[in-house]
Amino acid sequence: MNQEWTVERHLLGKPPEVVALYHRFIELAQACGPFTYAVSKSAITLKGTRRGFAGASLGKQALSGYLDLPRRVEDPRITRSSPYTKRLWVHHFRIDSLSHLDQHFAGWLGAAYRVGGGAHLDPPVKTRPDLSAALCRLHSGAATRQSVSVNQPTCIERSNWLWPRSTRTS
Fold it and tell me: Which domains does the chain have, with CATH numbers?
């Protein structure tokens, strides 16, 4: 049989419970934003603008798959994880209940979606929390607008990370 692999072909003949798990997995992925599919004989891969970020395979009793994440996650749903590159970990999961596709899983899928967009390629510069907060205060209002020079970086603080952002003054 030399048919092209499609999502529908993967769903064909699978138990309704596992198909429901797959549909919920896709709903969570769609909540992250647009993506495309790359379907092969072994898996349905979800692709972001830069790369694949997650995949699923329907079994007889469970939904299995993977997520590419920028950090290691430990959870009973994760059957194994290993470094994929210097900045990515591949996490293999097994889901056998809709309750396992909860907000924690949705958060991991969201992080994987950002990896699919290339977020892991240009990580922010790590700074000391006290220094980054002081710099953000300085740039957000403590200094007058006239004292900010053209192309002087400003920042947005997010969880102790300093995100540079250039500004222009008139």
Answer: 7-121 (3.30.1460), 125-166 (no CATH)
